[in-house]
Design goal:
By secondary structure, the protein is an alpha+beta fold. The protein contains 16 helices and 18 strands. Keywords: ATP-binding, Kinase, Nucleotide-binding, Phosphoprotein, Transferase, Two-component regulatory system.
Length: 498
């Protein structure tokens, strides 16, 4: 049944019924607005004009959603209208609350009663709007809005169907949105994790930590609190959720835990190092004690070796003196020559012990100084035959081990003595050269040569009658494990490698 037919049935003509409805509409204290199926305004009473400051000329034919209703309440209004229009009998819907804007964009908080009637075969929606808030409460709400817009805590308010009614800038910023992007959105489209967790707890939560997703799909750690807003009758009318971004705190917690673990490791390492240091200090003390003991023993041993060398040298000098005394009673030249050779050998060994006694190192000998002194004494002992003999020393090795020095000294003594006795018998003038160095194979090379008369028919060291030459051969080949070569062209040249 249409509205005109209802009024006609009450005894009014259509014109009278329309006039009656207009009078009733204009005298009521509620704003009464009618709109068609496209949400365009078709009727606008005087209270609506006073409430929203729009004249009928300003508003008639305009879309309600574009002019009056706040964007975040579009879905609330549409859902209620759709539910009412889907009912074949139309009728009256359940009251609900929205926020609208006046002509000067002032906020108007409204309680809506809606009903649907058929006029001319089309469905018209009648909205009875009552401003629900006095001036003082409006001021308080304005203050509260300013607070929510400036606080760092995110806030989101939805209706019971999950449509976002209000979201503050902090909530939008935490999730990478602008406030405008979120107006009228479904909460599950943007804050899915928050809403699901709240729903699992009947929308009453306190300090629940969870991971939410930003617009760019980046995870953000938050603390969620939520509750249900109820009217005076205890009916749920909205859900609010607060959200605090704790991502930086979580990162700091991880850093603190990492630092704490690192610090604990450092403390353990330091404790270990301190213990190791104590052990090392103790070991250093022990090492110093042992070193002092060794130094003392080495000092005592050096003193003992010096004393041994000194006594050996003295004993060899005594032997040399006895030989010298004994030779004075000899008249045979061969015997005298034999005694002289023995004395030279004894002197060569005594000189080594004398040098070692004077040296700071008991195991090595200054070989250049030793050869210089030994050859000087040999030349002096044969001064009658060698006053024009020149000695040339090419010694590249300064020090030598005592185990090599003694056999080398005896070899040099024998070969220099032979050269002084036999090489220059006619001219009594010439050169004797001593060369000593290490070759590329790190072997010692000793060469002793003269430019004297030489040796005829070469030398057979194994069958020679000369004790001195046999001694040279044995010292080089057996004692020093070396080789011995002799060249008798243009004098005599001995080359020994060991």
């Amino acid at each position: 049944m249409e509205a005109g037919e209802t009024l006609h049935g009450a005894g009014y003509s259509p014109q009278e019924g329309e006039t009656l409805l207009r009078v009733i509409s204009d005298t009521t204290n509620d704003a009464i607005i009618m709109m068609d199926e496209e949400y365009n305004v078709t009727s606008w009473n005087k209270t609506a004009q006073t409430t929203f400051n729009y004249t009928p000329q300003d508003i008639l034919g305009k879309n309600m959603l574009d002019t009056l209703i706040a964007e975040q309440f579009h879905q609330t209004l549409i859902k209620n209208l759709c539910a009412l229009r889907d009912d074949e009998t139309c009728g009256i819907g359940t009251p609900f609350y929205i926020m609208a804007f006046g002509k000067d964009r002032q906020e108007v908080f409204c309680r809506l009663n809606i009903s649907a009637i058929r006029v001319g075969g089309k469905v018209q929606t009648v909205m009875v709007i009552r401003e629900t808030i006095d001036f003082k409460l409006k001021q308080n709400l304005t203050t509260l809005r300013k607070v929510t817009e400036t606080m760092s805590l995110g806030l989101c308010v939805t209706d019971m169907n999950g449509s976002i009614l209000y979201v503050n800038p902090a909530m939008a910023a935490i999730h990478g949105y602008s406030v405008k992007e979120l107006s009228g959105k479904g909460v599950t489209d943007v804050f899915y994790a928050l809403f699901i967790v709240a729903a699992q707890n009947n929308f009453v939560t306190k300090d629940i930590e969870l991971i939410s997703k930003r617009k760019d799909k980046v995870s953000v750690s938050v603390v969620l609190n939520s509750d249900i807003v109820r009217n005076d009758n205890g009916e749920p009318i909205a859900i609010f959720m607060t959200c605090q971004d704790i991502t930086s705190c979580k990162k700091l917690e991880v850093e603190v835990c990492t630092y704490k673990e690192t610090l604990q490791d450092k403390i353990k390492e330091r404790s270990l190092l301190l213990k190791t240091n104590d052990d090392l200090q103790l070991e250093i003390v022990r090492s110093r004690q042992h070193q002092e003991m060794f130094d003392t023993k080495i000092k005592d041993l050096n003193m003992l070796l010096k004393e041994v060398h000194h006594r050996v040298k003295n004993n060899l000098q005594i032997i040399n003196s006895l030989l010298s005394l004994q030779s004075e009673k000899l008249t045979d030249k061969d015997m005298l020559g034999m005694f002289k050779d023995i004395q030279n050998r004894v002197r060569a060994m005594a000189l080594i012990h004398e040098k070692l006694y004077q040296s700071a190192c008991m195991s090595e000998l200054n070989f250049y100084e030793y050869i210089q002194d030994l050859t000087y004494e040999l030349v002096n002992s044969y001064s009658d035959n060698t006053y024009k003999v020149e000695l040339l020393l090419e010694i590249d090795i300064q020090t030598i081990d005592i185990d090599i020095a003694i056999p080398c000294g005896l070899v040099i003594n024998e070969l220099i003595s032979n050269a002084l006795k036999y090489a220059f018998q006619n001219s009594k003038a010439g050169k004797i050269r001593i060369v000593f160095y290490k070759n590329a194979d790190s072997k010692y090379v000793l060469m002793i040569s003269d430019d004297g008369v030489g040796v005829k028919n070469g030398i057979d060291f194994r069958n020679t009658k000369s004790l001195g030459l046999r001694l040279v051969h044995d010292l080089i080949t057996r004692k020093l494990k070396g080789t011995l070569d002799v060249d008798t062209d243009n004098g005599t040249k001995y080359k020994m490698v060991f």
